[in-house]
Design goal:
Keywords: Membrane, Transmembrane, Transmembrane helix. It holds the Pfam family DUF2516. By secondary structure, this protein is mainly alpha-helical. Helices cover 66% and strands 3% of the residues. It is built from four helices and two strands. Helix 1 runs antiparallel to helix 3 (47-63), helix 1 runs parallel beside helix 4 (69-92) and helix 3 (47-63) packs antiparallel against helix 4 (69-92). The protein is elongated, with a radius of gyration of 20 Å. The relative contact order is 0.14.
Length: 119
């Protein structure tokens, strides 16, 4: 019974490790495709800073056991990027993806074109 519990816990930790690696990898890829000036405009450090932090987070979550302190710090860095920095960058960049906004248009556009107040 104890062996089965230990095996289940090890499997859970393995899944958690994969999830944290995926989180860091997604953040790293997202930051890599964002424009440098968006980081400055959002007042969120700079692109190189976040690429380094997220790259270290990915490596740390791969190399170390999830029960150590370094992967926890790496997870916190990835989460901060995804819940604080990424939304600010999207707002500064005009939403959408970091690869460039498709379609143009303004904030007053409706589904059928510009809204002109009924004129």
């Amino acid at each position: 019974m104890g062996d089965m519990l230990a095996l289940g816990f090890a499997g859970f930790l393995g899944l958690l490790k994969i999830l944290l690696m995926a989180l860091a990898a997604f953040g790293l890829a997202d930051a890599a495709f964002r424009r440098e000036d968006a980081f400055r405009a959002a007042d969120k450090q700079n692109k190189v800073f976040w690429l380094i932090i997220l790259g270290i987070s990915l490596v740390v979550s791969y190399l170390f056991s999830i029960l150590a302190i370094l992967p926890v710090a790496a997870a916190v860095a990835s989460i901060v990027y995804l819940v604080d920095v990424r939304p600010a960058l999207k707002q500064v960049s005009g939403g959408g993806r970091g690869w460039g906004r498709r379609g143009g248009g303004s904030s007053s556009d409706g589904p059928y074109g510009p809204y002109n107040g009924g004129r």
